[in-house]
Amino acid sequence: MPNFFQRRNRVVTKMNKARFLWVDDEIDLLKPYILFLEEKGYLMECANNGRDAIERTKETLFDIIFLDEHMPGLSGLETLNGLHDAAPGIPVVMVTKSEDEGIMNRAIGKKIADYLIKPVHPSQVLLTIKKILDKKTLVSEATTLNYQHIFNQLSEEADQCRSAGDWAALYQKLVYWELELEQAENPMKELHALQKTEANSAFARFIRKSYPQWMMQEADRPLMSPALFEETVFPVIARGEKLFFILIDNFRLDQWYAVKNLFTDLFVCDEALYFSILPTATSYARNSIFSGLMPRQIASQFPGVWVDDREEEGKNLQEEPLIRAQLERKQLFPLLSYQKINSNPEAEELNKHFLELERNDLHVWVFNFIDTLSHTRTDSKMIRELTADESAYRSLTKSWFLHSPLYTLLKKIAAKGYRAVLTTDHGSIRVKNGVKILADKETNTNLRYKAGKNLGYEPRKLFEMLHPENFGLPAPHMSTRYIFATQNDFFVYPNNYNHHLSYYAQSFQHGGISMEEMMVPLITLNPK
User: Fold this and answer.
1) DSSP 3-state assignment of 112?
2) Could you tell me the pLDDT band of residue 7, with boundaries at 50, 70 and 90?
3) Higher model confidence: residue 189 or residue 434?
4) What is the pLDDT of residues 383-441, one digit of tens each?
5) In sequence order, what are the residues at sequence separation of 6 or more whose Cβ sits closer than 8 angstroms to the Cβ of residue 275?
6) Ranges in the chain annotated CATH 3.40.720
7) How far is the C-alpha of 115 from the C-alpha of 100, rounded, in Å?
């Protein structure tokens, strides 16, 4: 496979000759260099002043522009501004007689691709061309070789995973390679997607075996939703420090990796994963985080708070009382600020009143953008096109985050030297395969899990909980059971099966069992 793609890249290079523009008022002196590059198979055009160069770039698409820094009329730096306006994205190589550091700093600040100092040797020019034009190909080939080297190792690790820690380590590696292959536009992406699917299949088998044990033996379970506050919030509050607990609903590990570089200048990031409880849905997982209890305990101790799946009422309207009750059980009484943010104007209000909020000890903020995006995607053709695949989903997440009031708030938190926790309640997975089930009208509508008393299904295609009480889940009826989709399956009723299959396939869903839904980021943002 790699040899095929290497050959293909070479053929494409030969068929599509790179075209360069060289801008220099002494262009006649550069003919030997131009002839040298033309002999190498490149197409060359010349301009002897900045204005002509700018006009040329409006008419012709060049692969690289070589630009002399010192020219009469428009200087090299002035021409550079015009070139960026006329043809943004074209790499510009500055060629100069001067080694003046100020000139170089200004040129680099304007994002030149490289610079050469006269007298220029033809081999230097050729090296610069290869660095610019072949970088993507070289990176892709290197990434291919590295992934080939580790492919078998990752497959063996998936076969040998025996603990939650093993799976967390493997999942982090799989996500890392997913982003590496994506950045290099690598043809190995499809092979990696298959490897990830196979890993999810093994992960589902692991959960079938381990989850019942985790529910019976709390000491044996990994960090899960009910223990999140105890692990991350209580120690900080007990020390008398301020803490910002920020929960981005439906935030996956790959999305964290996509925005991670935005945090590194602000905080020292301590990265970890924790396991969401089942169902990996907001009404269960988030209420469990804020209460420190399993859903069955919430339904029993707070009957006025817990809302059954069959009811239309919002299931996370009483989060603040659950947080306060959990703090009181631990004999902790910090000044609490709780905010649920569903829109940018609401987040802007937090920014406006940030100084007033500082008097509080614990801030709990819930941001719903990503969850809203995943739900909207199902119903909106435009959003489906914007999030056509995993890469686009990550890209849109990063774009939102970069321009969101949340990013501004985090800068303020960092500037004040406060600590923050960034996490989520569950992730999501892009579903593909419909699994037929039968259910009555009282069954919930979620596509990745069902809770009901009259469910018809093939047990081998899913994970079933025949006795919900053993899994910390409420059971409105004696015969209530829960079933969960695994891997990238989703539940479809036989009526209008083909319609629902095509409508929901490729959508992002949550509630079931997959690495993406259950193993989610837990990031402690420590002050620098």
Assistant:
1) coil
2) very low
3) 434
4) 667 667 888 888 888 888 888 899 999 999 999 999 999 999 999 999 999 999 999 98
5) 164, 221, 222, 223, 224, 225, 518, 519, 520
6) 223-429+517-527
7) 12
Tokens standing for 194? 């298959």
CATH for the 15-133 domain, from 1.10.760.10, 3.40.109.10, 3.40.50.2300, 3.55.40.20: 3.40.50.2300
**Average pLDDT for residues 63-89, to the nearest whole number?**
86
Of 55-69, 246-260, 382-396, which range is least confident? 382-396
Q: Which residue has the tokens 């990745």?
A: 448
Confidence of residue 86 (pLDDT cuts 50, 70, 90): confident
**Which of the given ranges, 24-33, 118-127, 354-363, 429-438, has the highest pLDDT on average?**
429-438
CA dihedral 346, 351, 357, 361 (to 10 degrees): 90
Per the structure block, which two tokens stand in for 516?
């993406």
> What is residue 102's predicted lDDT score, i.e. its pLDDT?
57
For residues 396, 397, 403 and 407, what is the CA-based torsion angle, rounded to 10 degrees?
-170
Residues in the chain: 528
- CA pair distance 67, 48, nearest whole angstrom: 10
Q: Which residues pair with 68 in a beta bridge?
A: 95
Domain with CATH 3.40.50.2300 in the chain: 15-133
pLDDT of amino acid 14? 39
- CB neighbour class for 83 (10 Å; exposed up to 12, middle 13-18, buried from 19): buried
What is the SS3 assignment for 444? Answer: coil
Q: How far apart are CA 191 and CA 173, in angstroms?
A: 15
DSSP state for residue 513 in the 8-state scheme? B
N- to C-terminal Cα separation, the chain: 46
CA atoms of 291 and 70, how far apart (whole Å): 68
Is the pLDDT confidence value at 103 over 90?
A: no
- The dihedrals phi and psi of 234, each to the nearest 5 degrees, come to -55, -45
Tell me the backbone φ, ψ of residue 278, rounded to 5 degrees.
-100, 140
The helix/strand/coil state of 476 is coil
Q: Which range is least confidently modeled, 214-218, 313-317, 452-456?
A: 313-317
Q: Read out DSSP for 288-353?
A: HHHHTS-HHHHHHH-TTT---TT--S-SSS-HHHHHHHHHHHTT----EEEEEE-SHHHHHHHHHT
Could you say which of 3.40.720, 1.10.3470, 3.40.50, 3.30.420 is the CATH number of the domain covering 223-429+517-527? 3.40.720
Phi then psi for residue 95, to 5 deg, are -115, 125
Nearest to 327 by CA among 292, 295, 301: 292
Please answer whether residues 228 and 274 qualify as being in contact, where contact means their C-beta atoms are separated by less than 8 angstroms: yes
State the CB neighbour count (10 A cutoff) for residue 262: 14
Give me 283's structure tokens: 């009404």
In this structure, what token pair is assigned to residue 398? 């990063």
